Amino acid sequence: MNHSVWTLCFAKGRLPGDFVAGAPIMSNQGTFQIPMIYSLIRPESGDSNELILVDTGFGGGRSMTGRNFDDFETPETVLAKVGVHPRDITLVILTHLHFDHAGNMEAFPNARFVVQRREAELWRPVVESFAGKEVDKGNWKLSSISPRDFEVLARIEAEGRLTYLDGDAEVAPGIRCRLAADTHTFGSQWIVIETADGPYILAGDCAYWYHNIERMWPPGYIQGNPWRMLETYEEMLSVVDGDLGRVVVGHDMEIFSRHRSEVIGANPVAFVHAE
Known about the structure:
There is one protein chain. The chain is of the alpha/beta class. The chain contains eight helices and 13 strands. Strands 6-5-4-3-2-1-13-12 form an eight-stranded mixed sheet. Strands 7-8-9-10-11 form a five-stranded mixed sheet. Strand 12 and strand 13 (267-273) form a beta hairpin. The longest helix is centred in the last third of the chain and has 14 residues, at 226-239.
């Protein structure tokens, strides 16, 4: 099975070094520019005609640090860079339910969605516990969660367009989701994509930076277990035989220097594995 894979930046933010690369080794190092991304997968062999998006980004808004994101572009603008319209997407894989990864689901009206059941079911009571209360990003429990996204997810489920995964699962030929329970979140997952050159990985936020995997050092901001993150890094390395050139992490500008890339419009596109 062969696939083309593009990783698309749709906005940029800034975060402290220890947030993404870990304390204390990156404490007091200032802030770093980070890309906000989603990835497009297209089959290049076999009978599948799925056009797959991994994560949906957000439709606008502010980061949990309170500043505006820079260079925001809509999915219509971003996907046009690789000749696709949001209506063309047939399958969306949500790596997890943080606002910057699942905050724009309604932009893909023809897509089916998959998410780990554990992710949805364990976040739902957290969100419900704040019903009717004034909350903002200053509350750790909802520091990266938007209650509105759970309303959208419920509508998609009611429309019959949502599938819950219970652990590792093949969601399309040559596309496999790997559960990383209690790592970045309750039910985060990472994606393995078969290509003619071997498997590639979309790590989601199971790894923010390449630094996390290279140093075996978890980031400072997670809502799970850092030991499980370290185990996940080892699992990823075993899948790609240690070749980080076949891994796309969650929020690292090095994505666009480690892969062939081009700035189109306001933001870069990485041609991770393009036929």
